[in-house]
Amino acid sequence: MTDRTFSILKPDATARNLTGKINAVIEEAGLRIVAQRRIRMSRAQAEKFYEVHSERPFYGELVDFMTSGPVVVQVLKGEGAVARYREVMGATNPAQAADGTIRKLFAVSMGENSVHGSDSDENARIEIAQFFDEADIVG
Ligand code: ATP
Ligand code: MG
Fold first, then answer.
1. How far, in Å, from the CA of 79 to the mean position of ligand 1?
2. Phi and psi (nearest 5°) for 16?
3. How far is the CA of 111 from the centre of ligand 1 (A)?
4. Which pLDDT belongs to residue 1?
5. Ligand 1 centroid to 13 CA: how many Å?
6. CA angle at 25 for the pair 23 and 95, rounded to the nearest 5°
């Protein structure tokens, strides 16, 4: 089992200057930010990243949104990082997210839900490799 997960602070979060506030929630939850970069995702990068959702009705909207402004890509480290971060993010739909979670605190809607986190160790490995070289992960 890996102790890493991949995180994205989405365009709705960077637009509202929430990078620091979201990072504070992540760090207070015991996850360590071991790599971080602010980027503008290309359409090709977003399409590839969300390929698993390509047949879903919201795919086009999702790719448009993820390329609409800066994002912060991160590698988080901690025991059971994948599951821990999904707890910290809260439910995909902010209306259903538990108190104290990032999405409950900050998300605007199901689409503009402030953060992404990997859903398995295997996907964490694949997603991290899409955005980071191993040498840039310092933990
Ligand atoms: P993420 O993968 O971003 O961490 P998640 O695993 O909670 O979130 P997924 O089911 O993987 O959710 O969906 C990926 C993303 O697609 C969601 O975070 C959300 O931004 C968007 N999305 C999911 N369902 C919908 C929907 N019904 N309408 C609009 N956008 C949606
Ligand atoms: Mg997902």
1. 24
2. -100, 15
3. 6
4. 54
5. 15
6. 115
Check pocket membership of 105 for ligand 1, CB cut-off 6 A: no
Q: Can you tell me the distance from the alpha carbon of 104 to that of 24, in angstroms, rounded to the nearest whole number?
A: 15
* Segment-wise mean pLDDT, segments of 10 residues, the chain, 139 residues: 91 98 98 98 98 97 98 98 98 98 98 98 98 96
Q: Is the dihedral of CA 134, 46, 115, 5 positive or negative?
A: negative
Among 26, 53, 62, name the best residue to mutate to test ligand 1's pocket (greatest count of ligand atoms within 8 A of Cβ).
62
Beta-carbon-side half-sphere exposure of residue 125 (alpha carbons within 13 Å):
6
By the 8 A CB rule, do 127 and 70 touch? no
- Cβ–ligand 1 distance for 54 under 6 Å, the answer no
Give the residue ranges of DSSP H helices in 1-139: 11-15, 19-28, 43-49, 59-66, 81-89, 102-106, 121-131
Neighbours of ion ligand 2 (CB under 5 A): 119
Long-range contacts of 127-130 (CB under 8 A, 24+ apart): 127/6, 127/49, 128/4, 128/6, 128/75, 130/45, 130/48, 130/49
Q: Supply the pTM of this predicted model.
A: 0.97
